[in-house]
Amino acid sequence: MAKKRIYLDWNATAPLLDEARDALVDALSLLGNPSSVHSEGRAARAMVEKARRQVAALVGAEPSHVTFTSCATEAANHVLTPDFRMGRAPLSVARLYVSAIEHPAIREGGRFDRERVTEIPVEASGVVDLKSLETLLASHPQDAGPPLIAIMLVNNETGIIQPVSEASAIVHAHGGLLVVDAVQAAGRIAIDMATLGADFLILSAHKIGGPKGAGALVSRGETLMPVPLIRGGGQEKGHRAGTENVAAIVGFGAAAHWMAEGLDERNAAIGALRDRLEGGMRASAPDVVIHGEAEKRVVNTCFFTLPELKAETGQIAFDLEGLALSAGAACSSGKVGQSHVLTAMGRDAKTGGLRISLGFSTTEDEIERAIEIFMRIAARRKVSGRAA
Ligand code: PLP
What is the rounded distance in angstroms from the CA atom of residue 210 to the CA atom of residue 17? Predict the structure, then answer.
């Protein structure tokens, strides 16, 4: 009998939680359009609003500050724009500053022209360089409009937790606005918008056990908002037109609700498995480099380089052995690009990195088998003297 595959690519997408699936399937039977005033419409509206409360609760926000989108990428394109409104008055943002390790959803700069996007360097450790942020913002021409800054809370490749509240103090001292991509942080660390000092937060349902096809932009208030990306029927209080994907939103809400409970217990279990994995990896290949291991990381992520094993070759080798993991940055074509995160950290990006990411249903047995697979691939690399 073929061995069961091992899925350790939770940062790419998490399995759908039973609770999210049940809520989603039930919501598929809802007939009404949430914008309709009749009973059927109101029933659908009630489900969307419940989900809004659940998503808001996960990040310590007001439900009325949650705008549902189709994914985190859409939320990023919505908020990364030179054009905001403060109430009814237009407000122009002069320049976008993005950390060098942002996900492409952010790094592409949304609705900004390329020449109006500046990169904030990171330190060799993989942590955003706050001194550089301070220097960059000190020379920002304020008369052209405030700066918009995007810094992620948890990096998707290394798992390193970024110093967002410290960054927020710098950003606000320079009159800027801070957008925080919390896609990889949600459900993994406690998030409170006010403590973080984020003006906007970006979330994705499918990274927390919800369905693919739902995301959110969470704002600090309701007065300052980006000019909508999608205009039309005025849904989502005019911030995002188009009939809501009720079932996906309901599934998102159920996943957020589930994730908001039991964080410490979950992290203790996942962290123990990740430590066991990294211990096993080090024992079988002492030359393995685990990126960011000295930094504060989320407990589910292990991003490593095995010298002499190219990431793309490694990814295939692991896949053939029955283990699903990621190699650096994978684009939609499935091709593996060089990791811009390793490049930003000044590390050898040619060999690239492999990312193992765990989740709430990862088992001890899977980790023991993953260690055995790792051992075989590491040994093969040495025997052949070239990449496995
Ligand atoms: N931001 C981060 C850090 C991510 O890891 C991802 C997905 O990989 C995204 C944004 C984009 O999320 P979505 O698939 O919902 O557009």
Answer: 7
- Contacts with 365 (C-beta within 8 Å, 6 or more apart), sequence order: none
Ligand 1 atom with least separation from CA of 76: 10
From the CB of residue 106, how many other CB atoms can be counted at a distance below 10 Å?
Answer: 26
Cα–Cα dist 78/52, whole Å: 18
Tell me the per-residue pLDDT of 91-125, one tens digit each, with 9 for 90 and over. 999 999 999 999 999 999 999 999 999 999 999 99
Does the active-site annotation cover 71?
no
Ligand 1 pocket test: pick from 207, 229, 303 the residue with the most ligand atoms within 8 Å of its Cβ: 207
What is the CA 313 to chain-centroid distance, rounded?
25
Mean pLDDT of 168-189: 98
Q: Supply the Cα-derived Rg of the chain in whole angstroms.
A: 21
Query: Which domains are delineated in the chain?
Result: 6-15+262-379 (3.90.1150.10), 18-259 (3.40.640.10)
The whole-number average pLDDT for the span 348-369 is: 93
Give Cα separations from 116 to 102, 147, 177 (angstroms): 16, 10, 15
Token pair listed for 14: 């998490």
pLDDT by residue (tens digit) across 256-280? 999 999 999 999 999 999 999 999 9
Bridge partner residues of 304 (DSSP)? 290, 354
Nearest-CA neighbor of 273 among 359, 364, 355? 364
SS3 state at 259: helix
241 Cβ neighbours under 8 A, 6+ residues apart: 228, 230, 231, 232, 233, 234, 235
pLDDT digits (tens, 9 = 90+) for 4-18: 999 999 999 999 999
pLDDT value at residue 346: 87
| 248 alpha carbon – ligand 1 mean position (Å) | 16
- Rounded to whole angstroms, the Cα distance separating 273 from 264 reads 14
Ligand 1 midpoint to CA 383 (Å) = 38
